[in-house]
C-alpha cells in the first residue's frame, strides 16, 4: 500500500517536470491588439530583411549617441519599380496605423535633370494595408515632392480613391537644394550639414491612417488630408512597407523609423470620430480635397467638402466657381447660375464667371439672357477670349445672323488656331450666307486643324463636305489623301496624292507623302517625289533626310542630301543614325561611332540606336565592354535598356550571336524571353541560335511556338532546315509546301523546296519547282541550281545510282556569307536584303525619328533585289549566323520597315507644321 503512494507521487513529480506544449501561433489570425515595432531588435519588429528582383529591405542599426532608434530601409534599385516588404504577422481590417517615414534625397541625381515640378515627384513610398495578395490591397503613398495618394488595387489594377493631393505645409524638397547651387563656394561644412538636415526634415513624414469599416482617414504631419469612403476591400489583410520608383532616379530609398498599430475596435472608432470632428478639419484642407475630388470626377463628395468648408469661412471667388462647375456637372443649373452670379456681383471683370454663366445660358437655350450677359463683357476681354467669342458666334447663329456669327467664329479661331471647330463653324456660317469661296477656305483651315489634333472623325466630315462643294479643288484631293494616309488607308492615299501631284500640287507635303508611299514599290519614283518636296521647301530638314535615305537605300548618291539634312536639322537623331549606317557600310568605324553617339545623345531611349552602337562596338572587338549598359541592378543601365528591357536584351543577344558568341547570346535570349515570352521574332532568333548550338529539339519547340503566334518565311525555312538536319526530308517537304500556301510569292521557299526534291533524287519535281522559282527570281543561284539539275539528270542516265552524289548542294552565292545586323541592310551594298512583305504600306518610320508629326525609325533595309538564303533545307550543316533573302526584321534601325504600318502621325511634320517653322519641334 505504501509503495502505491510512493509510485503515485513519483508520477506527479514527473508530470510536473514535463515542459508544457507551446500552442503554435496562427499568423493568419485576425487579432485585436496594440503593438509597436522595436527596430532596435530586428527579431521583435516583425518586418523581415529581404532581397528581391530590383529591391532590398534591410535594417538600419540604431545610433548609440543619437536619437535614431533604427528602422527598416527599402531600396528600389532601378527605374519603373513597385516593391514592398510585408509584415507577415497577423491580419487586420479596422486598424490605426502610425508611422514615421523619411524619403532621403537620392544619392545618384540624374545627369542634367531635376525632379519634375509639374508632376507628383520622382518616387514615392508608403503603407499597404488590407493586403490580401500581391494583386489586391489598399496603398497609401507619399511622394518625395510632398504629395499623397490613396488607391484600391484589385487584380493589379489601381483604382484611385484619392488623387495626388499636396500635403498641407509641405514644400517641394528640391527648391532649397537647388538654391544652394548659387551659394558661396567657400561655405562651411556646418552650413552644408545644416542644409542637409533641413532637406531631410522636409522629406520626413508622420503618417496616421485610420481604416474604420468603409472609411479611410488620412493625417500627414498632424494635418487632416482626407476621409475617403470605399467598400472595395472589406476583408482583413496584412500590412506592408512599399516604395515606387518612376523615371527620374536610377535608385531611391525610403526609411521607416517608427511603426505602430492598434486594432482594438473601440479605440479605432474613437480615433475616427476625433479625426473627423467637424471643427477639427481646417476649411482649406476640405477645399484642397474638393479640388482633387472634382478632378477625379467625384462631384458629390467634392460638393460636400465645399459646403462643409463654407460653414467655417466665407467662400472665395475660386471656391464659388468650383462649386458652380460641380453644380453644372451635376445638371443643377439653377444652383450653378447662383454661384457664378455671386462672383460677378463681387467682381464684374471675372472672365471665368462670364464664360461659365454664358455656357449655362446657351445650354438652356436662354438666348436673351445670353445676349444681355455678353453685352456686359468688356470689349478687351471679348477680343482676347476664344471661348466668349465662340459663345457669341453661337448666339448669332441662333438669331439667324450668319455674317456676324462667321465673324465671331473667325475671331475665336484667330485666338485659338488649334481648335478646328471654330473654323468649321465659321465655314458653315459663310456657306449659309452664300459666300462659297470663303467657306471653302475656312473648311480647309478646319481640316488642317483637325489633322493636327488627330480629330479624324471631324476631319472625315469636313472632307465629305469639300468633296461635295469643291470636288475639283486640288486642296480637296490633298487633304483627302493626307487623311487616308493618317488612318492607314494607303491605297486610297496613293491614288489621291498621285492625282494631286500630277495636277501640279505646290504643297510640299503632298510630294513628301507620295514619296513615302512609293519608296518600296517604285524607289526611283520615290526619289523624284522627295526631290520635288525638297525643291518646294529646301530648308526643311525632314525632306532632305528622306531624300538622302531613299538614295542610300537605292545605292544612289546620297551624300549631298545627307549633308543638307544635317545642316537643316542637326538635332534630328535619325539623320545622325543614317550617317552612322553609311559609315558602317564603308567600314569607317571611327565616323560610325561618332555619328551613333550623337544619335544616342539626341534619342537616348531608342533601342534601335543602341543596336547600331552595339554593332560598332562588336566590329571594334569591344562588345563585352557594353555589358554595364545592361546592368539594371547596379544602376548603370542605359536609358534605352531601362525603358525597353526585353527589346534591349534581345538586341544584345543578337549582337553576341553575330559575333559567334553563342553561349553568351543564349543567356540573353533567355532573359529577353522571360520578359517577352510571346514575341515571335525573339523566339525565332533564339531558335536559330539553338540550331547553331545543335540544340535541335529546343530550336524546333521555339519555332513551333513562333509559328503559332505569327508565321513567317524564315520560320518555315528554319523548320525545314532542322528537319533535314534530323534526316526527316518528308517533314521538310511538308513544311515548305505549307509555307508556300501562305507565302506563294516567296522565292526562298521555292528554292529550298527545289533543293529538297533534288537531294531526294526527285529531279522532275525539282525541275518543275525551278520553273515556279523563275517566276519570282532570276539570279546566279537559280541558274546554278538549274545547271546542277541538268547534270544530275544526265548522270542518272549514264551512271549507277550508287555512284551519284545523293546530297549535292547548290553553290552558295555571295549573298549567303556572314554579315552583321547593322550592315545587313541598306548599309551593305553587296548584299541587298528583301523583306517578307512588299505591300504598298510605305512606312513612315525611318531614320528621321519623330519629326513633328512624322516618323520614328529608319527604313534602312528596303532593298528589293533578291538574295540567296543563308541556310536552306538543302543544307544539312548547322547554319552560320546569317540571314535568308527573306530575313527577319531584327530592329527598326537595321532592317526594312516597308512592311510595317506607317505611323499615322507622319503627315503632320509636312502638312501640319507651322509654315513659319521649318525645323522639327
Describe this structure in words.
The longest helix is centred in the last third of the chain and has 19 residues, at 780-798. The strands form 2 sheets. Strands 1, 2, 3, 4, 6, 11, 12, 13 and 15 form a 9-stranded antiparallel sheet that branches. 49% of the residues lie in helices and 13% in strands. Residues 172-200 and 796-921 have low confidence and may be disordered. Helix 7 (317-329) packs parallel to helix 9 (351-363), helix 23 (573-585) packs antiparallel against helix 24 (589-602) and helix 33 runs antiparallel to helix 34. Strand 7 (123-133) and strand 8 form a beta hairpin. The chain is an alpha+beta fold and 921 residues long. The protein is built from 36 helices and 15 strands.
